[in-house]
Amino acid sequence: MVRLITHNLLACHVKRCTTNNFPLQLKDVQLALREAEFNADFLRGFMPRLEWTALVQAACQVGDDSLPLEAPEMVDDEFLKNLHHVLLEIHIEEGAMVCPNCQHVYPISNGIPNMLLAENEIG
This protein's superkingdom (predicted)? Predict the structure, then answer.
């Protein structure tokens, strides 16, 4: 399933698409919300690995504006709950991820992203 925690790790891998290929832009998404067990320690540990600006942009693209524009230095329970919701409870069921550089479209169907490339796109 595509969640924003996964989306935050994905970049375009089309041959010669090596700049401005992250983050993939979310288009025409259909969402499902699924509760997930809250784990504050996991979130605190995972925060340094996040590309924060990309996460905030992706959250806004799916209609969630609960995260601050910059990662806070001090985190409280409300912030962690918002982060938990954005990263782990928003599921993208249908739609597409589009490379901002080469415009390659990675479709999402039944919650699964198709990241496969045609033979001529492999570098």
Answer: Eukaryota
